[in-house]
Amino acid sequence: MARNQTPQPNPLKDIMNRLKQRVEGADGPDPSKRKMHFSLWYFLLAMLMISWLQGHLFEQQLEKLPYSQFKQMVRDHQVESVVLEPDRIRGEFKQEGKDKRAFVTVRVEDPDLVRTLDEKEVKYTGLQENKWVVLVLSWLMPMALLILFWSFLIRRMGGGAQGVLSVGKARVKIYAEREVGVGFDDVAGIDEAKAELQEIVEFLKFPEKFQKLGGKIPKGVLLVGAPGTGKTLLAKAVAGEAGVPFFSMSGSDFVEMFVGVGAARVRDLFGQAKQNAPCIIFLDELDALGKARGLNPMGGHDEREQTLNQLLVEMDGFEANSGVIIMAATNRPEILDPALLRAGRFDRHVAIDRPDIRGREAILKIHSRSVKLVADLDLQKIAAMTPGFVGADLANLVNEAALLAARRGREDVGLSEFQEAIDRIIGGLEKKNRAINPKEKRIVAYHEAGHALVAMSVANADPVNKITIIPRGIAALGYTQQLPTEDRYLMTREELLDRLQVLLGGRVAEEIVFEDSSTGAQNDLQRATDIARSMVMEYGMSSRLGLLTYTREPRSPYLQTGATGAREFSEQTQQQIDEEMGELIGQAHQRVRFILLEKREHLNRLAEILLEREVLDGEELKAFTAAVRADAGGVGGSGGPMHQHKDI
Fold first, then answer.
1. Which of 226, 482, 526, 547 could covalently link to 558 via disulfide, CB atoms 3.0 to 4.6 Å apart?
2. Whether residue 230 sits in one domain with residue 198
3. How many CB atoms lie within 10 A of CB 20?
4. 100 and 188 co-located in one domain
5. Is 241 one of the catalytic residues?
6. How far is residue 230 from each of residues 193, 332, 400, 561, measured CA to CA in Å?
7. H helices within 53-182, ranges in order?
8. Is 483:643 a contact under the CB 8 Å cutoff?
């Protein structure tokens, strides 16, 4: 059959060029993008190629004719040639020029067809069906496309041929030497911990210094501290200072529903580490993996314990001076298995405490490197306003202050933005538009005035820094903020009793002024109950029960959670504990009532100021505090980290 010999545009080539441009982008090829989209684009190209071949190579554009019309056109000498196929007839019309019109018709049982074609001198030929081509096009090629597409899905779900079948592969994040990007200069507020880990850095950089003397570096280093204190950052800084690869994995990544997967991942992780020695393995949240064995109520032989056993074996299997050091972080060291903490495994324990005022100032300097601050901003003053803040809190503080300054259209970040950011982090988002009826607003004002007045009246209370009745957060209708003058690590019995009085100040003020009580003291009463329970059951501060503690399960020093567990004392002792707690709360309640009745005039004046201005701080608050203390002379004390009393 004649074909057009003039150059025609190739649509397949155009499509391939456009796809190539999309994959590579405007700035040239990107190897990472090509790798990510390879399977999908080639699958689409294969589908387009098949469609183009079927539409342009295997099948001409044919005009469909009824068989009767075809016979008539043969008789009228309008048909030049035909191809007789088993189920159809293809042919070309007689036409001047090179272009021939093609047609197709369904073949019917007609014994006179060949004789008619001979009489009208129509060229005809038969066509033998190629069964192999039909088999490839109709069966093998679709199956191949399905297999390719399935392989693509498997790779997307789990990493190609090693996806579903290789669940034992460790899902570890590997940072090369140049990718860590963190050093000791990026860590502040934990100078003692940095000094402790400097020895690890020296061993990784100069191992011969220790080996020639026969010394062995600790195999494991356990970083212990409260959430957000910088345990992960410090581990990265060690790897960055030493210039070695850093393998990071969470303890929960090892535990799966399939038996044996966790142990396999432990073996794979340590195998990769040995191949890349010297290096550091970092296990975050070790308590998810290393909880003490035997605590599982469903039995002792579970998947988590198998994984822990494999970890213990791998740590014991380390060759001396192999250059692989394992570091782990946890905020619950009291529940770890003792086998993990023995010498030869996690030899060294590094405690990372909350930073003091100098540490907070150093952390603020690091996080404010990229922030434009006002020229006279004193970061030490901001550090004094944030007792109890850890590194993560301070990083969030700097970011919130920068966002507030940008929202206000300022060119730099000042003290007012930092103060507002502190209030926002502690109390939540300010909600000035929340509709509060005058009666509730008056209750909140007297509630917060009661907290503040009691704090001003006791001798050892932390200074009141701010009082507000502007709603914040989800449920806080107001709060009284106290800031300690120095970092505290111990509290005496008298200080705890005075803190009870400050917590009860809001509730007692409501009782005195309105002769009724509201739900606003719920948070205060909960905290007061926790203090009273700890004094009786943990601190041995009860005159009736003596120097005994009534908790067995160890309490984490890094988490704000009370001790729990089965009771191991009699009903009579429990009754005495309840009575002693009630007596502590009752005595504090009577003392607060006496203070507020004696200073009723100050209470009314402070509440009226709050109703008028909604916020009281600065010099006016200091003057008011001085007047109250001059009248009282001080009758107690309160200390500790920054605390608030919320009306909810």
1. 226
2. yes
3. 13
4. no
5. no
6. 11, 15, 19, 21
7. 67-75, 113-119, 131-135, 141-158, 177-180
8. no
Other CB atoms within 10 A of residue 341 CB: 15
Residue 413: phi, psi to the nearest 5?
Answer: -105, 125
- Separation between Cα atoms, residue 598 and residue 3, nearest integer Å: 112
Q: Give the separation between CA 348 and CA 218, rounded to whole angstroms.
A: 7
CA distance 554 to 195: 29
Cα angle 331, 337, 340; round to 5: 90
Look at residue 328 in the predicted model and tell me its pLDDT: 92
Number of folded domains that form the chain: 6
Instruction: Please give the pLDDT value at position 38.
Output: 46
Q: How far is CA 313 from CA 5, 182, 274, in A?
A: 75, 31, 15
Q: Is 607 part of a structural domain of the chain?
A: yes
Q: How confident is the model at residue 209 (pLDDT cuts 50, 70, 90)?
A: confident
- For 479, phi and psi rounded to 5 degrees? -160, 155
Q: What are phi and psi of 67, to 5 degrees?
A: -60, -35
Residue 2: which residues within 8 A CB-CB, separation 6 or more?
92, 98, 99, 100
Assess whether 464 and 549 both reside in one domain.
yes
Alpha carbon distance 456, 595 (integer Å):
10
298 with 311, same domain?
yes
Compute the average pLDDT of residues 207-214.
Answer: 78
Token pair in block for residue 447: 């509630």
Please report the pLDDT score of residue 395 as a whole number.
Answer: 92
**Residue 525: its pLDDT value, please?**
93
Indicate if 511 and 530 belong to the same structural domain.
Answer: yes
Asked whether the beta carbons of 141 and 50 are under 8 A apart, the reply is yes
How many whole angstroms separate alpha carbon 356 and alpha carbon 28?
52
Type and span of the H or E element at 247: strand 246-250
Distance CA 46, CA 506 (A): 75
> Among 92, 285, 448, 580, which one carries the catalytic annotation?
448
Q: Domain check: are 144 and 111 in the same one?
A: no
CB of 426 closer than 8 Å to CB of 596: no
Q: How many CB atoms lie within 10 A of CB 36?
A: 12
Question: What pLDDT digit, counting tens, does each position of 539-583 carry?
Answer: 999 888 888 888 766 566 666 655 555 677 889 999 999 999 999
Residue 248 and residue 289 in one domain: yes
Same domain, 23 and 101: no
pLDDT category of residue 214 using cuts at 50, 70 and 90:
confident
Residue 278 preceded by cis peptide, ω within 30: yes
- Count Cα atoms within 13 angstroms, Cβ side, for 123: 7
Q: Per the domain annotation, does 396 fall within a domain?
A: yes
CA angle 217, 175, 201 (to 5 degrees): 25
Residues 63 and 73: their CA atoms lie apart, in Å, by: 14
Closest CA to 463 of 545, 384, 523: 384
